[in-house]
Design a protein that fits this description.
By secondary structure, the protein is α/β, with parallel strands linked by helices. It folds into two domains: 108 residues, 2-Layer Sandwich (Nucleotidyltransferase, domain 5); 216 residues, 2-Layer Sandwich (Nucleotidyltransferase, domain 5). It is built from 13 helices and eleven strands. Strands 8-7-6-9-11-10 form a six-stranded mixed beta sheet, sandwiched between helices. A five-stranded mixed beta sheet has the order 3-2-1-4-5. The longest helix is centred in the first third of the chain and has 21 residues.
């Protein structure tokens, strides 16, 4: 006997409301792309209160500056890799319908004799218009991105952005700014280090410098030194030598209300190693404070591991093992010059600075505490 067909079989199913969130209004979206010496990174976000909410992102190690130190040119293979990554970015921008965007290129394109030609090639092949920015703007964007991490107790601030091809340092005096207004005073620097702040208390930029040494360019300077520890010591010494023209370099005293904010893959990797994270977690790293002793302990562990040990470490990886030592050499030099227990780790950078600057200029961020 054939089984009885259940009642309602074959009927159309009732429509069920999709649990998927409503896509954001393209008119509210902003995009920021940062093409550096090593990586191509992009964020798409919408304003949310005094911050922003990330809708989509992209990050790819394209090694645009590979071979630049020796030849002075961007190689064909590195440009091909980068353009492939830029095509993915274009697809994401088109999918979300983003109209407000800023796409920047930094040290590799600044230094390469064919940097402008490469930017024109990107425009032809992807319809994306890159803008090669000057070192001062790169420094400003790094500072603005770190504004939410500035303590209301801080009076002297050093922001350090360790990139692939250069390192930016900005020393800021906010001692005359009311404590609750200090993060916002840092944010207002997006208009320029010497811009008129209007009726607001101003953050004073004491000095800034762009050192043409980042994790890739510093590594390339000493790649012929075979001994791991000797190469590290030379890199740290050489970077410090290049800071001699930075006016706060010889500051004799460091006050208790002095804060360093470090933003880079080096700083976040050192933080992840300090925490013993088996899997990277931005929520645990961004805003973490580390002492110079804790940083030095991680760096000494890296040295004891050696190249093979660092390749096997999941927090470093095969691709970054050489770069982490040149970045650590820069970090160690900074902590040697300005010893402090107030180094704040920032998992943020030029993309975030670009977004804050665009949104702040458009007046779409709420006037609320960070």
């Amino acid at each position: 006997m054939a089984p009885k067909r259940p009642t309602g079989a074959g009927a159309f199913p009732k429509a069920v409301e999709s649990p998927a969130p409503k896509p954001p209004d393209p008119a509210q979206l902003y995009a920021a792309l940062d093409l550096g010496t090593n990586s191509c990174r992009m964020l798409i976000a919408q304003p949310k209160g005094s911050q922003f909410h990330v809708v989509d992102s992209f990050s790819k190690a394209v090694q645009l500056g590979q071979g630049l130190e020796a030849s002075g040119r961007l190689s064909r293979s590195s440009m091909t890799r980068t353009i492939s990554a830029m095509r993915i970015c274009r697809q994401k921008l088109e999918r979300h319908g983003v109209k407000r965007l800023r796409l920047i290129a930094t040290e590799a394109c600044r230094r390469a004799v064919n940097g402008d030609a490469f930017v024109a090639q990107v425009a032809r092949e992807t319809n994306l218009k890159l803008e090669i920015i000057k070192p001062e703007e790169e420094a400003r964007l790094a500072v603005v991105s770190c504004a939410p991490l500035v303590s209301t107790k801080t009076e002297q601030l050093l922001v350090v952005d360790i990139g692939g091809g250069s390192t930016e340092l900005v020393w800021i005096d906010i001692s005359h700014v009311p404590p609750r207004e200090r993060p916002r005073a840092i944010m207002r620097l997006h208009a320029g280090f010497k811009a008129d702040p209007g009726p607001f208390a101003a953050a004073k930029v004491v000095d800034w410098i762009s050192v043409p040494l980042g994790v890739a360019t510093l590594r390339d300077q000493f790649e012929d030194v075979e001994d791991d520890a000797a190469r590290f010591a030379l890199m740290s010494w050489f970077f410090e030598e290049n800071l001699s023209k930075f006016s706060p370099y010889s500051a004799e005293t460091v006050r208790e209300n002095f804060q360093i904010v470090g933003t880079s893959g080096t700083v976040t990797t050192v933080a992840a190693s300090h925490l013993g994270l088996k899997r990277y977690d931005r929520t645990k790293v961004d805003g973490l404070r580390m002492t110079s002793d804790q940083i030095d302990a991680v760096i000494q562990r890296y040295l004891s591991l050696g190249p093979e040990g660092r390749r096997a470490d999941p927090r470093i990886g095969r691709d970054r093992q050489a770069l982490i030592m040149s970045g650590s050499a820069i970090l160690q030099a900074l902590m040697r010059i300005w010893p402090t227990d107030r180094l704040s780790v920032a998992d943020r950078g030029l993309r975030e600075g670009l977004l804050y600057a665009q949104m702040s200029a458009d007046g779409v961020l709420e006037d609320a505490p960070y």
